[in-house]
Amino acid sequence: MNKEKIVVIDFGGQYNQLVARRVRECHVYCEIYSYKTDLAQIRAMNPKGIILTGGPDSCYAKGAASCKKELFEMGIPVLGLCYGAQLMMHVLGGCVCKAPVREYGKIEVTVDKTSSLFSNVSEKTICWMSHNDYIEEKAPGFRVTAHTMDCPIAAAEWKEKGLFAIQFHPEVLHTQEGFQMLHNFVYQVCGCLGEWKMDAFTETSIKAIREKVGSGKVLCALSGGVDSSVAAVMLSKAVGGQLTCVFVDHGLLRKNEGDEVEAVFGPSGPYDLNFVRVNAQERFYSRLKGVEEPEEKRKIIGEEFIRVFEEEAKKIGAVDFLVQGTIYPDVVESGLGGESAVIKSHHNVGGLPDYVDFKEIIEPLRDLFKDEVRQVGLELGIPEKLVFRQPFPGPGLGIRIVGEVTGEKVAMVQEADAIYREEIAKAGLDKTIGQYFAALTNMRSVGVMGDERTYDYAVALRAVNTVDFMTAEVAEIPFAVLARVMNRVINEVKGINRVFYDLTSKPPGTIEFE
Ligand code: XMP
């Protein structure tokens, strides 16, 4: 496995992970490495091809991210994108300088269809441009294969050497035929076979885990989220009853969520594993009593979680392996190169338990992007509802209740949130919105119900669309749907007499309230 590999060299561009994901979508495995990575290390990986990403620098500036000329002389095909394209030209003797006209956005590009990079691509095609510099003069040996109104060298290649440079970004969806271009690079230029398939990955991984674990004992902290669920099922398929999953119900989950997790992973569910549910609600509520500051709440929830988990682990005794649901973006974001030993606690707020007695960590999803984890989940037969769950923060409703958390407030926000989610699903919007939930504001206001005065809490509905969760836009939910939710929440949830819809984008807001 993993014989066929493309290496993505990162120059700090915002789309580096996207480049890797698109290559994986072509069924070719690829990994991201920093531009500082030693050439010998890259050569030793024997990649079928190399892709240089975009980046914020000007390649001719002092101290700019760069690469050695030898990178282009290894006999391995190289595709440079945006900054990567400019760098290729710069290093090989072309001229890159500030462009007379800056290009930004969707631009029509005219391509030379005889280039293998552009086969099955329209002659005039819309591409995403974002550059201040441009290639004024190509490097010797290259021929120009695309141009725009303002950019005479939008692509160039030296076919015999396997070197390709494109000024635009084929990895973003705004480049309408970008996927075809990347597909052409990995198949036609690099000669990949497309061996990276999730069914094969799943099968091979299960076998490898089985061999590694032998007759050992395995412990897994299960949150019910996508990553830990997929990791747990993989382990269950590999070693069955040697696996114990500990599920800590901290009382800050959505309505019925604890029972739903138990229904899937507990003794009446389909998986062969030992399931331990710890109902620690009261412990968490009492630690959170009187605490209002968001980071303080996060810290308490994280610490308490680790403590509960450790206590359960002690009851189980020494184990050989601890399972972590780390995924590839965690590895990349914590320092490029994939070598750093990152360990993301499934809860990702408290870190790794100190006192759990184990010999080794197993991270079965360490090489996968989120959408690949979901595909593995489907391969493993995990219910779709669980596989396509929207993100839910580790501290749960603790950060969706502004101010002090109490059992009563949790119950209120759970009910309101359940109604909101039900109505969103009924309106057929559940698959189109990135993340949506109800949060309890700390505001009480006067209302009237029947003939009685009320003085109750206000709930805020939030719904955002986002690509990367770093920025987000408010989702436009039809007014009639919002009105129905408002009606139901006020009629059905005791303690709430007002409903707001949060219009704030991120930035300046965040997605969560705390
Ligand atoms: P914000 O609120 O920072 O959220 O815009 C961005 C994404 O991160 C999730 N989030 C968290 N996830 N622990 C988590 O596991 C946390 O403490 C936490 N805070 C925010 C949030 O749900 C959104 O998807």
Overview of the molecule:
This protein is of the alpha/beta class and 514 residues long. Helix content is 31%, strand content 24%. It has helices at residues 16-25, 39-44, 83-91, 178-189, 198-213, 226-239, 257-265, 281-288, 294-316, 328-333, 370-379, 384-387, 407-426, 479-492; strands spanning 5-10, 29-34, 49-52, 78-81, 95-111, 124-137, 143-147, 155-158, 163-166, 218-221, 243-249, 274-279, 321-323, 360-362, 435-449, 452-465, 473-474, 496-501. A 9-stranded mixed sheet has the order 2-1-3-4-9-8-7-5-6, sandwiched between helices. A 5-stranded parallel sheet has the order 12-11-10-13-14, with helices on both faces. The radius of gyration is 26 Å and the shape is globular. The protein starts with a strand and ends in a 13-residue tail after the last strand. The model is unreliable at 336-350 (pLDDT under 50). The structure holds xanthosine-5'-monophosphate.
